[in-house]
Write a structure and sequence with these properties.
The structure is a single chain. This protein has 136 residues and is mainly alpha-helical. Helices cover 68% and strands 7% of the residues. It has six helices and two strands; from the N terminus they run H-H-E-H-H-H-E-H. Strands 1-2 form a two-stranded antiparallel ribbon. The radius of gyration is 15 Å and the shape is globular.
């Protein structure tokens, strides 16, 4: 089922969102100081292409630096990408089939706003107790 959802996602929203993340990543890589933001955008572009079957988990080693990077990310491009997710979620929610795609868009909102201090991992890589916390 997740493969079917990912294929429908790719056509309806994933390709456009991934292009937005790639564009943000290219802009962020123009300056040496913002290269970590570009790498985060490229990582999220891959997640935007194929989100079902993956979850976002907090890194236990994230500290104050991640929080500061998240503030800068939010100001530079996080809120633009979040608006893209909200618009595509509304567009997908118009149909009954698209409701699960809209929920996928909303699942990606936290990582589009504050990507530092989070990891994107496959559900298969989680322990059983973690799977109960991060169901997709």
């Amino acid at each position: 089922m997740k493969t079917l959802l990912n294929l429908i996602w790719l056509v309806c929203a994933g390709l456009w969102l991934a292009l937005g993340y790639l564009f943000a990543g290219l802009i962020m890589c123009l300056f040496i100081v913002t290269i970590p933001f570009g790498i985060a955008a490229f990582r999220m572009a891959i997640f935007a292409l194929w989100p079902f079957g993956n979850v976002i988990v907090a890194k236990p080693s994230a500290g104050v630096g991640s929080g500061l990077m998240n503030v800068v990310w939010f100001v530079l491009c996080g809120w633009w990408l979040a608006i893209g997710h909200i618009v595509t979620a509304i567009a997908c929610a118009i149909t009954i089939i698209g409701i699960s795609l809209a929920l996928g868009n909303l699942k990606m909102l936290p990582v589009s706003l504050v990507p530092f201090g989070k990891d994107i991992v496959p559900v298969a890589g989680l322990r059983t107790d973690q799977r109960l916390l991060y169901r997709t």
